[in-house]
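Work Package 4 report. The design task specified in the project plan requires that, given a folded chain encoded as structure tokens, an amino acid be chosen for each position. We show below one input record used in the internal validation round.
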């Protein structure tokens, strides 16, 4: 029964990297299915292996319409994929095929790599342009360098190997890979010398050659500086280091230069510099057209690797920031009370609505015995994990009030702690109060918006900020104030995310609108008052994105229990 033969045009790109027993490597395109592997040519093998221990009819690659499969066709010692016995295994990029022999051939299946089709096309083009043993050696270097660039080794190892290969291709003495920093200045990332070692001296590349290559967006290949333009001949580093040959290849993202073009002709249309590959030598050099084409091909591959690494790093940073924000949000949620304990002489309600970014709002209630309770609403400066962590410090510090410390002493302690840790660079506005069964309220307003006092039909901002925020000024003194609440008096505490809420026209909600929203609600249930406030802010904002959390805490004094 004859097999259906599928030719290259109908197949996905795939290749076999063949590693012979002596370590030599070659690449062979899989251009048909079935693709036969075995010893000798008489059985029609497309990959012929010269090891008598391998069967004449050994294996075949079959494309089943979705993936390539390795099929055992009579290998006496069996076929193995990644060390496991295989009979008709689907193959993935990088899979290792062996023949049950420790000192025989190894075949690496290459597929799905973005650079593979272009690399194979380039090699076919370059092979046609120049032949001979020297040309094949250079192509072998390109193959090895490209495979290493797309390997899974650490990036710095990959880049060091790439510079080593570039040195071998150019027969240079030294090589550098430079990358632009945040300000665009080129900084050395990899420095190597001939033989694969790190140089024992600081390499000073020719800034003249670097500027020429970057400004013109084209390679600078100078075989003998003695015959170069006057600017390069007169360059300080060229003279000081007695350089004769210099090769500078800029690596741009999206460049228009193609492998096979003369690297000295025509600027690329790239818009962003990824790096520069630099080599020099104290001996004159002579580069054939093939060698220049190979350098161009290597540069394109290196640029692709650097761009992919940048994209991966960007994605990792985005994921890291997202994890940080999620951690901060979880910390905040854990700090805020889920429900409030029932108290005989007052009641309380609270809500926190996070904006898209994590804020630093915090509110809580602390029992100080059967006849006293403390409450606080704080707003930490800034956003993110730092703000959330500072709310954790505040919660720990505030717990000291349960030990009988006075509000003024407590605030002095918090302020001293935060100022001593100046690297935190955070401060917090706070409103803190201690309410007892007689309605006596001792409070400190440390730079926070004044809570509203609902008493009968009036609404007043009766608690102006008399102290500065904590963590802002060292050795500042804090003083508390006192007021006596009447039964039914209601305090509306809020963060500036309420008063500074913005509508689509960038108008501010303001305290006056908040007063209007709560006027006449002194007899309403606290949850109803809370909902009125939140709905008023929501309608005002009309869907505009807010820059801060919206936090409300409402405390109502009922009366001294009978």
């Amino acid at each position: 029964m004859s097999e259906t033969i599928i030719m290259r045009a109908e197949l996905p790109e795939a290749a076999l990297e063949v590693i012979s027993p002596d370590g030599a490597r070659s690449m062979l395109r899989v251009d048909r299915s079935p693709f036969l592997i075995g010893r000798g040519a008489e059985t029609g093998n497309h990959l012929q292996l010269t090891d008598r221990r391998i069967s004449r009819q050994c294996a075949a690659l079959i494309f089943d319409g979705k993936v390539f499969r390795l099929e055992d066709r009579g290998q006496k010692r069996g076929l193995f994929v990644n060390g496991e016995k295989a009979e008709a295994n689907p193959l993935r990029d990088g899979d290792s095929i062996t023949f049950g022999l420790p000192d025989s051939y190894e075949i690496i299946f290459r597929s799905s790599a973005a650079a593979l089709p272009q690399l194979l096309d380039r090699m076919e083009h370059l092979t046609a342009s120049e032949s001979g043993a020297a040309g094949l050696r250079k192509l072998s270097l390109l193959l090895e360098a490209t495979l290493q660039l797309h390997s899974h080794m650490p990036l710095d190892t990959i880049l060091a190997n790439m510079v080593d290969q570039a040195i071998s291709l150019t027969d240079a003495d030294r090589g550098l890979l430079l990358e632009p920093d945040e300000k665009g200045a080129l900084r050395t990332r990899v420095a190597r010398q001939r033989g694969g070692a790190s140089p024992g001296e600081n390499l000073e590349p020719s800034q003249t050659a670097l500027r020429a290559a970057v400004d013109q967006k084209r390679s600078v290949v100078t075989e003998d500086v003695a015959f170069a333009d006057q600017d390069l001949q007169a360059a300080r580093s060229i003279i000081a280091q007695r350089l004769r040959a210099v090769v500078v290849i800029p690596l741009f993202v999206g460049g228009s230069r193609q492998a096979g073009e003369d690297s000295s002709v025509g600027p690329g249309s790239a818009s962003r510099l990824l790096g520069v590959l630099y080599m020099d030598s104290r001996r004159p050099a002579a580069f054939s057209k093939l060698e220049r084409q190979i350098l161009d091909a290597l540069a394109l591959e290196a640029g692709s690797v650097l761009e992919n690494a940048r994209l991966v790093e960007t994605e990792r940073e985005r994921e890291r920031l997202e994890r940080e924000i999620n951690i901060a949000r979880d910390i905040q949620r854990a700090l805020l009370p889920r429900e409030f304990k029932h108290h005989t002489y007052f009641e309380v309600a609270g809500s926190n609505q996070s904006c898209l970014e994590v804020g630093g709002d915090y509110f809580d209630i602390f029992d100080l015995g059967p006849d006293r309770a403390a409450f606080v609403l704080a707003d930490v400066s800034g956003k993110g994990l730092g703000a959330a962590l500072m709310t954790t410090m505040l919660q720990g510090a505030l717990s000291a009030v349960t030990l009988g410390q006075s509000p003024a002493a407590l605030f002095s302690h918090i302020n001293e702690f935060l100022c001593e840790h100046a690297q935190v660079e955070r401060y917090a506005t706070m409103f803190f109060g201690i309410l007892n069964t007689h309605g006596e309220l001792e409070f400190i307003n440390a730079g926070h918006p004044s809570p509203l006092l609902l008493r009968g039909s009036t609404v007043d901002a009766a608690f102006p900020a008399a102290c500065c925020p904590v963590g802002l000024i060292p050795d500042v003194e804090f003083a508390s104030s006192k007021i006596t609440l009447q039964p039914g008096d209601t305090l509306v505490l809020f963060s500036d995310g309420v008063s500074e809420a913005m509508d689509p026209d960038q108008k501010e909600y303001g305290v006056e609108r908040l007063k209007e929203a709560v006027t006449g609600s002194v007899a309403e249930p606290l949850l109803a008052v809370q909902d009125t406030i939140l709905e008023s802010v929501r309608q005002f904002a009309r869907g505009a994105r807010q820059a801060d959390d919206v936090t409300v805490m409402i405390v109502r004094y009922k009366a001294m229990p009978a």
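The CA atoms of residues 19 and 25 lie 5 Å apart. Validation will be extended to a larger panel in the next phase.
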